[in-house]
Design goal:
heterotrimer, A alpha/beta (325), B mainly alpha (547), C alpha/beta (307), A: 325 residues, 11 helices, 15 strands, C: 307 residues, four-stranded antiparallel sheet
């Protein structure tokens, strides 16, 4: 749905974006993360056809941002991180104005506005003045505005910025709902725990370069070689570790605090086998989960190694002494 | 010892001063402004010089004096019009930049903050004044002026800039935006400048006369006698100190946290003011050469009393503070020790504070009236021998004006005090209470005055009849005194009560005091009820405060 | 360390804080949660002695904010959510100004400034202009200024607002360090996930009223008494369900594809249940206790009405 090819944006000698190759599939909820000044807003604005690239191109819904910006604007909805509102207008007037701006026929405007208000759950506020709404409600209204022309792709720059906890949760629910409706959504945010919950794929940007994109498990596995499982047992953790290390399914097992980290042998190891072993040997299984790195850990690891090309190339085969036998 | 020195140096090189110096001299703006001012100054002096030099038969010393005068004028313009601009945005600028809260949460006291801002602006002023000093050498090339003239000029400029800078800092604590700060600062600058000008003239009348007539002037404070010294030096110095004190205390008050004591400093200031003014008035009367005319002395004494009355009104306003919740009052007042414990009655919101104000006013008025009365009457005619009836227009009769006026003012202040205590329980906000007090003041002053003007038609022998005139008013008292000065019978009004003749003065004072006491008691009752309600919870308190 | 007793604050007709009472123990990292306009900033300003309470009192390290504001300012460091920095000063000069404002004697000043800059990672920025800093660096500068007089109590209003992910994580690490140094920290934030990670106690405010306060675990236990367990199997879903059904403490079983979630109360013998599953040849690929988090608690106990 969104594909950029060597997208570059230069401001004088400074490269805001450097050869970006981004790919977002249809139906993805794609999280776009990076430090301040990494180029996230620049990328989004280029995709929204508000900014021109220095070189390279981007395809949105098959249309090029260089050659067919008008077509793109019909298919996308862009919500910037800060937007002004017309304080003296009513909610329904505001939406009708934007519906008209999008070229929706006069006859269907009212229905569209009502539908959208129902979708974002603002129906009860349709006659309120915008200036009197809370910040969270105004953000929801902003989201409603970008949905009016039923775009296939949504570009949301910090949609929850400044919102209180309840409003954040509600916006997240709304975005999830939109994802279920089949829309492709690109979200940029600083709050990683929320993104990790919401997105199925992420892209990590630093200093104009895309360090990684893919699902969380993809990057986790690239950072930490192999499949790992975390387990907690009720009795004799040390003996459990020894038993696991001796097993054919296990490459390596170690005790970290009260948690046992087990690396499965590539190819032959199975998760079920490990759990089976722990249970049958009577260690008393309390917790058993395949390790998933959370987005914050991923981000820290990835951006720390940003200088090297470590993640571009295939992960090197570890030089490990063979175990067992 | 080191600790003491360190703490002392903190008041010279204040943290705020250090910060401002660092920030200002890093940028280019200050240097640019300074450069522009210096160039302009030099240009003006040069032009003056050239203009005068091309005159036919130029007298060198005259040229020198003219250049010097130009120099002095430019400096004065600088001090009066340009330099306050630094100060009038000093505090409000911090508020706008939202860095003020950070300053308030440090351990800097409000006094230290005000003093710090003041020293910063004074440093800029001194910088400008000193850096333009070399330009005066042009005048010295020609003579006609001496170093003494220069010294006097600079002393005067320094004195003026101290007052104006403190005033600017005070203004910056009262306004909400920088724009308003600048406007209000310059708006009210005029009266201050006029006062300063008058001060300068007073101090050096003879000196200026000599200077303008082209004679070499020696600056000596050659006052002929003590009277002149007090009049020309003492009184203006006292007023100057009073203004400085007022600006500093007000500015500090505005920066204090809402729960801090705002009025003790002002109450002490008021007492000192009254005492100082009384002392000066007395000195003037005592030392006046050739004995001041009786009427002049009387006028001076009355002027003093009216002035003190006006200030007294101001101090009474602090009785109209918010009612204090019991917990706060008890803990705050109860923990005071030493000198502060002695000041307990002056604590804000405490009932004692209102009472104390009234008592202080009464005592001070009484204490200052006696010597004034003494000063008004020649020693030989004081006190009036018993049984001697005071003839209308006689010295005795007129001299009664002094205690009479004092009593009227005291009674009036009682009324205000009582009303203040009552109003503090009626309104949620202190400003509303104080505003209502102001309205009461106006009503009590103006309404009877208007009524009297209406009735002024009804006169008998040029003396207005008192019919239908409310007894309770201060202008009435003023008017009767004025009549007395005009050799008309003073306080002639009396009315019959069960066959006894009661002068209106007594009725006037009595009514005011009674009314004041009544309002005070009413306020006390309301206060008690509010305190009880406060212990029930905030909603009850809010409802109580509304009605 | 911080005690708030019956605190109320009126702004004209608007009741911003209504009879608030809670305690923060020494060494707590205490989270302050609530929608906008709930009264968090007002309460923090009262504690910082910038506002006067309409009723009630607040005590910091035993000193009353109403009666002894000067003593409170000695032990308290306040970082507001909006603030300005002075132009024309370097980072070091900015901190030096506040050091002298806090009356730190000149001898000790250099040392303290170095320590504080190191703690907030500003050492490399000492000659940079304070007004030239990015948002993240400015937050660190303000935090440094708050720490200069070594206060025992820190009150931080949205310290992470506007920070990028790395800066947020670093801030959390720094705050945890400060907590370990024995400081008591009261922090307000909208990001519940971060607070849950960092704080050991919270207070939840809505419309000026306290809805819940206390230790995080305690509140979770109180509001969500049930523990949810998620079991993932590779096959034999029906058999797994049948085994689970044999245990009486298992409640509200829900199966979705190969994931079965169930709830129970209190401490139960999970290993025994797992053993039964294994003996019944159920291949287990995942067993996880789904911790109720602060967000669930928040949604449950607040009504969502914003002032």
């Amino acid at each position: 749905m969104i594909e950029t090819t060597n997208l570059t944006k230069r401001y004088g000698p400074m490269r805001a974006l450097d050869g970006l190759c981004l790919k977002v599939e249809k139906g993805d909820i794609f999280g776009f993360i990076g430090p301040n000044g990494a180029g996230k807003t620049t990328t989004i604005r280029i995709l929204a056809t508000l900014l021109g690239a220095t070189s390279g191109d981007a395809l949105v819904c098959g249309y090029s941002v260089r050659r067919h910006p008008k077509d793109i604007r019909r298919m996308i909805g862009y919500m910037p991180d800060s937007f002004g509102v017309y304080e003296e207008m009513r909610v329904d007037e505001y939406l009708e104005f934007f519906a008209a701006a999008h070229g929706i026929a006069r006859g269907s405007r009212t229905k569209v506005v009502s539908d959208i208000l129902a979708l974002v759950d603002l129906g009860h506020k349709r006659e309120s003045l915008i200036g009197q709404l809370s910040r969270g409600t105004q953000q929801r209204l902003g989201l409603a505005r970008v949905l009016l022309h039923d775009p296939q792709v949504l570009l949301l720059d910090e949609p929850a910025s400044g919102l209180d906890p309840r409003a954040r949760i509600e916006i997240r629910e709304l975005i999830r709902e939109l994802g279920r409706m089949g829309k492709t959504i690109l979200i940029s945010s600083h709050i990683l725990p929320e993104l990790g919950d919401l997105c199925n794929r992420v892209g990590i940007l630093e200093r104009g370069k895309l360090l990684h994109q893919g699902t969380l498990s993809e990057v986790a596995s690239r950072l930490r070689e192999g499949r790992w499982v975390q387990a907690r047992v009720a009795r004799d953790p040390e003996r459990a570790v020894a038993a696991l290390s001796a097993s054919a399914e296990v490459q390596e097992a170690r005790l970290e605090g009260d948690m046992i980290s087990v690396r499965l042998r590539d190819g032959t190891g199975s998760v079920a086998g490990v759990s089976d072993l722990l249970v049958r040997e009577g260690f008393g299984l309390l917790h058993f989960q395949e390790e998933e790195m959370d987005l914050e850990q991923v981000f820290l690891r990835v951006t720390r190694r940003a200088g090297t090309a470590a993640l571009r190339a295939k992960p090197p085969q570890p030089e490990r002494p063979e175990r067992g036998s | 010892m080191g600790g003491l020195l360190a703490r002392a140096s903190r008041w010279v090189m204040t943290p705020i001063l250090v910060k401002e110096l660092r920030a200002t001299f890093r940028g280019w703006r200050f240097y640019a402004a300074h450069g522009v001012v210096l160039s302009l100054f030099a240009l003006i002096l040069l032009i003056t010089l050239i203009v005068w030099m091309t005159e036919p038969d130029p007298n060198p010393s005259k040229v020198g004096r003219v250049v010097f005068a130009m120099f002095a004028v430019f400096q004065a313009v600088l001090v009066v019009l340009v330099l306050p601009a630094f100060g009038c945005t000093s505090v409000v600028g911090e508020k706008e930049r939202k860095s003020f809260d950070l300053l308030l949460t440090t351990t800097l006291t409000p006094a230290e903050i005000v003093w710090g801002k003041f020293t910063a602006t004074m440093t800029y002023s001194c910088l400008f004044l000193i850096s333009t000093l070399p330009l005066v050498s042009i005048a010295f090339l020609f003579g006609g002026v001496s170093l003494v003239d220069l010294g006097f000029c600079y002393a005067y400029l320094l004195v003026s800039s101290v007052l104006l800078n403190l005033y600017a800092v005070f203004i910056s604590t009262t306004v909400k935006t920088s724009q308003r700060g600048v406007v209000i600062c310059y708006l009210f600058l005029a009266p201050l400048v006029i006062a300063l000008g008058a001060l300068g003239v007073l101090l050096a009348e003879k000196y200026l006369e000599r200077l303008l007539n082209g004679r070499a002037a020696e600056l000596t404070f050659d006052f002929e006698n003590t009277f002149e010294a007090v009049l020309r030096l003492g009184a203006p110095a006292f007023l100057y100190a009073a203004l400085l004190g007022f600006f500093f205390l007000s500015a500090t008050n505005r920066l204090k946290s809402p729960t801090a004591n705002h009025s003790t400093s002002f109450r002490i200031f008021y007492v000192l003011l009254v005492a100082g003014a009384a002392w000066i008035a007395l000195w003037l009367m005592e030392t006046s050469p050739g004995k001041m005319a009786f009427h002049d002395r009387l006028t001076l004494a009355l002027a003093y009393l009216y002035g003190i009355g006006a200030f007294g009104i101001f101090s009474q306003v602090f009785a109209a503070e918010e009612p204090v919740l019991p917990l706060r009052l008890r803990t705050q007042v109860g923990r005071m020790t030493g000198v502060r414990a002695a000041l307990r009655p002056m604590m804000p919101g405490s009932v004692n504070g209102a009472v104390f104000c009234v008592l202080v006013n009464g005592l001070v008025l009484a204490a200052s009236v006696l010597p004034l009365w003494y000063g008004v009457l020649a020693p030989e005619s004081f006190p009036a021998p018993p049984g001697v009836h005071a003839e209308p227009g006689s010295a005795h009769e007129l001299a009664r004006a002094v205690p009479f006026t004092a009593a009227c003012i005291f009674a009036f202040l009682c009324l205000l005090s009582g009303a203040g205590v009552l109003f503090s329980t009626m309104f949620r906000r202190t400003s509303t209470a104080k505003g209502m007090l102001g309205l009461l003041l106006l009503a009590v002053l103006l309404v009877p005055l208007i009524a009297w003007l209406v009735v002024v038609q009804d006169m008998e022998d040029g003396v207005p009849k008192p019919y239908g005139i409310a007894v309770t008013n201060l202008p009435m008292a003023l008017v009767t005194v004025w009549f007395g000065l005009e050799q008309k019978p003073i306080v002639p009004f009396a009315f019959n009560l069960h066959g006894r003749s009661i002068p209106y003065s007594a009725a006037f004072c009595g009514a005011h005091v009674a009314l004041g006491l009544g309002l005070f008691l009413w306020g006390m009752l309301r206060r008690r009820r509010l305190v009880q309600r406060a212990e029930l919870g905030p909603t009850a308190l809010a409802e109580g405060a509304k009605g | 360390m911080i005690e708030i007793r019956g605190l109320s604050k009126w702004y004209d007709q608007f009741l911003a804080v209504n009879d608030l009472s809670f305690t923060v123990k020494k060494g707590d990292i205490f989270g302050f949660i609530g929608p906008n306009g709930a009264g968090k900033t007002t309460t923090m300003k009262v504690l910082a002695t910038l506002l006067e309470p309409s009723a009630g009192n607040a005590f910091v390290a035993g000193h009353s904010v109403v009666d002894d504001p000067e003593k409170v300012r000695h032990v308290l460091g306040y970082m507001p959510d909006y603030y300005g920095v002075y132009e024309g000063l370097t980072v070091w000069e900015y901190l030096d100004f506040f050091a002298s404002a806090y009356a730190i004697p000149r001898r000790r000043r250099a040392r303290i400034l170095e320590d504080v800059m190191e703690l907030t990672d500003l050492t490399g920025l000492r000659t940079r202009m304070a007004s030239d800093l990015s948002k993240g660096m400015t937050q660190r500068l303000c935090l440094a200024k708050t720490l200069i007089h070594d206060p025992q109590v820190l009150i931080l209003d949205e310290p992470a607002s506007g920070l990028d992910p790395r800066a947020r994580i670093e801030l959390r690490i720094l705050l945890r360090e400060l907590g370990e140094m024995g400081k008591t920290i009261l922090i307000s934030s909208h990001i519940l996930t971060e607070l849950a990670d960092m704080c050991n106690a919270v207070a939840i405010l809505e419309r000026g009223t306290l809805i819940a306060s206390g230790g995080v675990d305690e509140i979770l236990r109180r509001t969500m008494p049930f523990t949810t367990m998620v079991l993932r199997v590779r096959a034999e879903v029906e058999r797994a369900k049948e085994v689970l059904g044999r245990f009486p403490f298992v409640q509200r079983m829900e199966a979705r594809e190969r994931e079965i979630s169930f709830q129970f109360q209190g401490e139960q013998d999970i290993p025994a249940l797992v053993k039964q599953l294994a003996l019944s040849d159920v291949p287990i690929v995942g067993l996880e206790e789904q911790k109720a988090d602060l967000e669930d608690v928040f949604m449950k106990i607040t009504k969502g009405e914003v002032a």
